[in-house]
Structure formats: C-alpha cells, structure tokens
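__Protein archive entry__

___
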Amino acid sequence: MTDIKKPLGGASSVGHVTMADRRKFLLGAAGVAAGAAALTVGSGLGIRTARAQSRAEISFASAAFFGNETFGDLCKTFNESQDRVTVTYIELPPPSSSTEVYQGLVQQLARRNGTPDVFSQDVIWIAGFAAAGWALPLDEYFPADKRGDYFAGTVAACTYQEKLTALPWFLDSGMFYYRKDILEKHGAKVPETWDEMATIAAAAQAAGDAKFGYLWQGKQAEVLVCDAVEIITSNNGSILAADGKSSLIGDKPAVDAIQFLYDTINKTKISPQNVLSWDEEPSRQPFTSGEAMFMRNWSYVYPIAQDPKASEVVDKVGVAPLPHFAGGKSAACLGGYQLGVNANSKQREAAIEFLTWLSSTETQQRIALNFGLAPTRPALFKDAKIKQEQPFMASLESVFTGATGRPITPEYAKVTLALQSGISKALVSGNVQAELSACAEQINKIVG
C-alpha cells in the first residue's frame, strides 16, 4: 500500500541506445564482447536480459519495507547467486515517510550520474520520472507478449506515453470489508452494486446491528483521490481523458459517483459526518471495534481484524471487490511500489539483470511470504505455499484484477491537490456539479 495509507519530464535523454545495442540484446551473446552472455530468467518467461562482461557494480534504492527480512537480504541473495553483478542496497525511509522517499529519489535521479541504477517507486511517481527522462524505457527488454504475466492494471500504471517505463513488483488496492455474521443474519449476499450496499447497510443500522453502515475516507488527502478513482471508475467514468490532456471530473459519471458519496452522509445516512475528516486509521478503528457493517480500506486491515488483541470482530470479517454502479464494474485503486532503471545508469545491462530477478516469479513469491506484500503476477495467487502461509493474500486475486491506477500524468502532484480540494468542497457543500466542474477547469489548466 502506498503512502496514501500511511499518507504517497521528455525522454530524449535516453536516446543513445542504438539499434545495434538492441540487436545485440535480443540476439543474446552474438556480437557482444567476450564474457557477455544472455540470461533466460528462471521463471520460464523467456524474457531475455543481458549479462555484464565482468562483475559490474550497481546500486538499488528503495523505501524500507520490513518483514521477516529486509531488501538488503534480497540483494545479498542475488549477489551470491551469480558472479557477474554486485548490488549495493541504498535504504530509503519507510513508505510511511513517502515524501522523504520521493524527495530522496528526485535528488539522486536529477543529478543524472547513474545512481541509483535500479530503484523502486510509488505508482503515482512513474509518469513524472518518465517524463523527466530519468526512467529507462523497458520495452525492448520486456516485450508486450510477456506483460500478460502481470495484472493488466499494474502494467497500465507502469506505462507512460505507450512506453513501459517501470516493471511491476508488488501491489495493494482498495477493497471492500464486510461483517459476515450480520450479512448472514439479514439473509443477504455480499452486495455487488452500490445501491445494494446502501440498502443492506441501512437495514443493519435500523436493526441495531451496526452503528455505521458504511465507512470510507473523505479527508482532504491523497486517500480521498483513491476513493474517488474507485467509485468514479465503477460508474464507467474517469478523472482524465485517455490522452491525459483534459479532465472528465465534471462529467455525469463522475458527478453521479461523488453525489453517491455525499448521499451516504446526508441522504441515506449510512456514513457518519466524521468520514470527511477521516483517512485510513480513523475509519478502520470503528470497524474492527465492531461498530460498522461495511468499509472501504486497504489490505493492511485484515490482519488487524483477525488479531484478538486489536479486534472485536475476529473471524467475522470478509473481503470482496468493491461494489459498482448498474452497468459498471468493480474498480480498486492501485497502490504499491514498482521497479525502474535509471536512464543514466552506466551499467545498464547489469541493472536489467537485477531488475528482472527482482520481478521474477521466485522473488515475488519470497516477498509475498516474508514481507506480506502482494505479487503483481496473478499466477502466484494460486501458488501452494502462498495459499498455505498467506491464505488471505491468496484470496485477493479477484480484487487486484480490477485494480485501476490514479490519473497518469507527469503533473500528478498538481492534479492530486486540485482533486483533493475540489472533491472535498463538493462533499462538504453538496454543490457537487458546480464544484467538480470548477475542479475540471482547474485541472485542464494544469494538463492542457
């Protein structure tokens, strides 16, 4: 999950990769200096990456995600697994300090000196790093016919101007939590539409089974954009047009979706007024204390819900894809960190080899087991070991299949502030159409 939970320019500079370079890579060792060879990744994908001629030294910078080991341990394993590349790990702050992670990467990449060679990045930074010319396009190394091994939404989030500029690594997304026991009491099934959800939530409140029908995050912060992306997309709407150069936030699908959120507070009254000041934790706490029927949140909530020391709803919680509007489909806002290669790396082939290893089936499995971070490869959700050791994660494939990225634009930092302000004004005032139309005009000035 991105910092939203705990909060998180031109490519011409990479044009020195020649056609001969590409040919050498694609054809393997042919024409490359002695000692270089092509490596077929052990995941059986047939993706080819180039080996360094000697033990090349590269660096890897990432936010520090902690589990049963560290990313430094991953680097050590890679270093010991072959004799071509040595990786030095640069540990950045944890994702809860996303601003510091972002600033640290920007400062390094802007120097254009090749350090770090490989880096991990929040999905919302991908377009900006690519537009700045800091991220190496990866299309020649990871052809289109191999990208089907990843969730389509993650690949889309890793693509800028039809170029793959990041490689999927691990992810999170918004998901729908519900009380199994209350649902069973009311003889209802897990709601698939927002209207069904509102009806069941109101019934649970009326019966005294839940103080709150539906909890979500309406604070003027990044998480509000995530909630908006989900509900707007589930109504066949969008925040930006496909070309990223105009806003659709003032169009009917988006307006109707945000109106629904306003109505949960002021019409159906299934959500408390306080949601407008809540981000993830304030909305999580009433749910795990047994006061709510439904909730939108991230995957981190489930282990808390199952902890007797922190939860009053142990074994009473289910998780499903978020509802959608009639004629729409479920959408979950994509979070997580993906991989990039510095466009100015002086050890490009070594960087590609390490990047490929990090994103491989075997390494993603290890990260899932030891860090609890969900794979970007759908096949791993059927993996026997993950099913045994991380059963909740293994159940989330259907949730992640509907993962949708936030607006893809190099101006995202400005766009998100406009969205947070405009959507917040709409939810507070109830003047949804007017506020979202004004928001669209502001965004058009930013991206147009």
User: Anything to note?
Assistant: The radius of gyration is 23 Å. Residues 1-52 have pLDDT under 50 and may be disordered. The chain has two domains: 11-172+334-404, 173-331+409-447.
